[in-house]
Design goal:
Keywords: Membrane, Transmembrane, Transmembrane helix
Shape: elongated
Number of strands: 0
Strand content: under 5%
Structural class: mainly alpha
Largest sheet: none
Number of helices: 2
Distance between the termini: 30 Å
Length: 87
């Protein structure tokens, strides 16, 4: 009996994580450029909104990174890991 093939599952997880990382990098760059050039002219509501969105995106990227590490490194080749919550 051969082990199940999870290459499609792991591959889509990795590709999705890489796309999310690229988009996070673009968001981080835009946040830095905003802080350097436009933050002095905008009101406090816009500044808080930009900062809050950057923090939410940072948390999301950390969660995606943890998920990828859990499945591709810690539990690689363990098909029962899909039935367990990510720690």
């Amino acid at each position: 009996m051969s082990p199940p093939d999870f290459s499609g599952t792991y591959g889509s997880l990795l590709v999705g994580g890489l796309v999310a990382a690229v988009l996070y990098g673009i968001t981080a760059l835009q946040t830095v450029v905003y802080c350097q050039h436009s933050a002095t002219r905008d009101g406090w509501l816009i500044k808080i909104t930009v900062g809050s969105l950057w923090l939410v995106d940072t948390f999301d990227m950390a969660a995606i990174s943890q998920l990828i590490y859990w499945y591709l490194i810690t539990n690689f080749g363990n098909p029962s890991s899909f039935s367990q919550p990510v720690v």
